UniProtKB/TrEMBL annotation:
Location (main, coarse): other
Region of interest called Disordered, as start-end residue ranges on this chain: 113-150
Location in or out of the cell: Cell junction, Focal adhesion; Cell membrane; Cell projection; Cytoplasm, Cytoskeleton, Stress fiber
Keywords of the record: Actin-binding, Cell cycle, Cell junction, Cell membrane, Cell projection, Coiled coil, Cytoplasm, Cytoskeleton, Growth regulation, Membrane, Nucleus, Stress response, Synapse
A GO CC annotation given for this chain: nucleus
GO biological process, one term: actin filament bundle assembly
Role according to the record: Stress-inducible actin-binding protein that plays a role in synaptic and cognitive functions by modulating actin filamentous (F-actin) dynamics. Mediates polymerization of globular actin to F-actin. Also binds to, stabilizes and bundles F-actin. Involved in synaptic function by regulating neurite outgrowth in an actin-dependent manner and for the acquisition of hippocampus-dependent cognitive function, such as learning and long-term memory.
Signal peptide as annotated in the record: none
Gene Ontology molecular-function annotations: actin binding
Gene: Fam107a
Protein name listed in UniProt: Actin-associated protein FAM107A
Source species: Atrichornis clamosus
Positions with biased composition (Basic and acidic residues): 113-138
């Protein structure tokens, strides 16, 4: 589709207006048989919603109000994060609901054992020191006795 320079200059001579056919339309002659074209309407600009939005934007601009202080990207990212957190919470709730009775019972027993261990630690903390020392002596005496027997 590359034209040699000589052909290009011939085209330029034939059409002195630069080859643009639309610059001199035929209906300027005043020929009554031809239908004169009308300018096409832009369907977007003709729609009511577009006109109302444009009017609202003009009013806000006149008042000096900005649309929003946050950029669109930041709003979208925050919306995605919020949706992700909601999904995670729903999944956790569903996982809790789907636990088998066996798993629930194991969890209860584990909690009870933890509670008993905490209570024993509290009781040991409140015991007099001589009882703690006596228990340590018993442990060491059994260890040393076992070592002698071996």
């Amino acid at each position: 589709s590359f034209l040699p320079a000589s052909m290009y200059t011939e085209i330029q001579r034939e059409r002195p207006d630069g080859g643009n056919i639309l610059t001199h339309p035929d209906y300027i002659d005043g020929n009554p048989d031809l239908i004169k074209p009308k300018k096409l309407l832009n369907p977007v600009k003709a729609s009511k919603s577009h006109q109302e939005l444009h009017r609202e934007l003009l009013m806000n601009h006149k008042r000096g109000l900005g649309m929003e202080s946050k950029p669109e990207l930041q709003r979208v990212l925050e919306h995605r994060r919020r949706d992700l957190l909601i999904k995670q919470k729903k999944e956790e709730e569903e996982a809790k609901k789907l636990q088998s009775p066996f798993e629930k019972e194991l969890l209860k027993r584990h909690q009870r054992l933890d509670q008993l261990e905490k209570e024993q630690e509290k009781q040991e903390d409140h015991a007099p020191e001589f009882i703690k020392v006596k228990e340590n002596l018993r442990r060491t005496s059994t260890v040393t006795g076992d070592e002698k027997a071996a």
